[in-house]
Structures are given as structure tokens and as C-alpha cells.
């Protein structure tokens, strides 16, 4: 447990440094949300209707933008080999790295959502609902993307392969994330079924992601 905590602290510290990648995702998220009102035009009602989808799409693309750094730096400096050969189960190490990535790159997107929602003409209830769905759904983006990041490192391919692998797996998260946000705004009951499915997707990714990523790394680095 101490080794896993040290790995999480190390990855979070590296990600938060200048050039570590976490700031890139937040800036991209901010750019998407700021530019969207200019593209939609002065129709505030339409902007409010599209707000949850815009925030979710921005979060998905921002998460995808930073996933390639999940294993690349460790592979380049040789520390990934040490992680694979250590006594700590590789599945737990992969889960720890994904958690650190989410804390550094995913959680800031959730924190920024209430502020950015104002740019999309969303009220406090709406931005809170979207932020809660992002809190429940962004772990699925990270832990699912970890599988693609591991394969990209093993196959020595860049961001294009990562995008091709991860985007199809992320579409259900995007669909139910937006549906849960809209249900919270207009449905008879808060969130409803889409939010339950979104939480289930995150739980599934928490279980499957580390095992799939660990299997990819073992097979590729042997």
C-alpha cells in the first residue's frame, strides 16, 4: 500500500508540473467551452440546451488529449520496466497510475465545470448536475483510456492509435453522461436511469481497465 501511495504521489506531482500534461487538458477544455458560444451565436436558449453536451464533449476530448502521457514517460525512462518487475501486482500499479491521472487531469475538469457553465447560459442547478455527472463519468474515461494507452506504448504508436482505440469505448460514457445531465434538468426525478448506467460504466471500467492494461503491458514488454 505504501508503494502504491508513493506511485500516486509521484504521478500526480509529475503531471502537475509545467509540461506534465494536466494543464494542457484543462486549457483545452477551457478553449472548447469559450469558443462554442461564438460558433452557436446569440441564441441563449439554444446555447443552454446544448450546454451539457458541450461540456461533456470538451471533457472527453481533453481527457483523450492527456492519456498518451499515462505510460509514455515511464516507458521512455525505463521506470515502467521496474514497475512491471516489482513485487506490487501490476494490476494495482495500473489502477494507481490511472487514479493519479484522474486526480491530476480529470478532477480539475469537474472543478472547472461550474464556472464554465456560466459561459453556456447554464444556471447553478444545471452546472451542478453536469459537474456531478462528470464526477461519476470521467473515471470511466480514464480507466478505459488506460487500456488504449497501454496498447499504444506496447505497439510504439502515437496518439492516432490511441484515439482509434479509445474513442469507440468512450462513446457510451458520452451518451449516458449527456443523457443523465439532461434528465437532471428536465426529468421528473433527478438523474434517473442514465445516471445509474453511467455509474455502472465507471465501476466496470475500474474493474476491467487495470487487468486489461496490465495484460497488454506484460505481453508487450516480455
Give your account of this protein's structure.
- The protein is an all-alpha fold.
- It has one domain (2-221).
- 85% of the residues lie in helices and 0% in strands.
- It is elongated, with a radius of gyration of 18 Å.
Mean pLDDT metric: 86
* Count of spatially separate domains: 1
The structure class reads: mainly alpha
Order of helices and strands: HHHHHHHHH
Tell me the total number of β-strands. 0
Quick structural overview:
The protein has 222 residues and is an all-alpha fold.
Looking at this protein, list some descriptive labels.
222 residues; 0% strand; single chain; mainly alpha; elongated
List the helices and strands and how they pair.
Layout: H1 2-16, H2 22-40, H3 44-66, H4 72-77, H5 79-85, H6 90-119, H7 124-154, H8 159-186, H9 193-221
Amino acid at each position: 500500500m505504501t508503494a502504491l501511495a508513493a506511485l500516486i504521489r509521484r504521478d500526480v506531482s509529475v503531471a502537475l508540473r509545467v509540461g506534465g500534461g494536466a494543464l494542457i487538458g484543462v486549457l483545452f477544455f477551457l478553449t472548447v467551452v469559450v469558443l462554442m458560444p461564438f460558433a452557436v451565436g446569440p441564441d441563449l436558449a439554444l446555447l443552454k440546451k446544448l450546454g451539457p453536451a458541450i461540456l461533456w464533449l470538451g471533457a472527453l476530448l481533453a481527457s483523450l488529449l492527456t492519456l498518451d502521457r499515462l505510460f509514455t514517460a515511464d516507458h521512455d525512462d525505463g521506470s515502467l520496466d521496474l514497475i512491471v518487475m516489482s513485487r506490487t501486482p501490476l494490476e494495482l500499479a495500473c489502477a494507481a497510475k490511472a487514479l493519479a491521472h484522474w486526480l491530476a487531469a480529470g478532477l480539475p475538469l469537474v472543478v472547472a465545470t461550474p464556472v464554465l457553465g456560466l459561459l453556456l447560459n447554464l444556471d447553478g442547478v444545471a452546472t451542478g448536475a453536469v459537474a456531478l455527472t462528470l464526477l461519476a463519468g470521467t473515471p470511466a474515461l480514464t480507466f478505459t483510456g488506460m487500456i488504449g494507452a497501454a496498447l499504444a506504448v506496447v505497439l510504439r504508436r502515437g496518439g492516432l492509435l490511441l484515439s482509434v482505440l479509445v474513442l469507440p469505448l468512450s462513446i457510451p460514457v458520452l451518451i449516458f453522461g449527456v443523457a443523465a445531465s439532461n434528465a437532471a434538468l428536465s426529468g421528473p426525478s433527478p438523474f434517473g436511469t442514465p445516471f445509474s448506467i453511467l455509474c455502472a460504466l465507471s465501476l466496470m471500467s475500474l474493474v476491467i481497465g487495470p487487468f486489461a492494461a496490465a495484460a497488454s503491458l506484460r505481453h508487450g514488454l516480455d
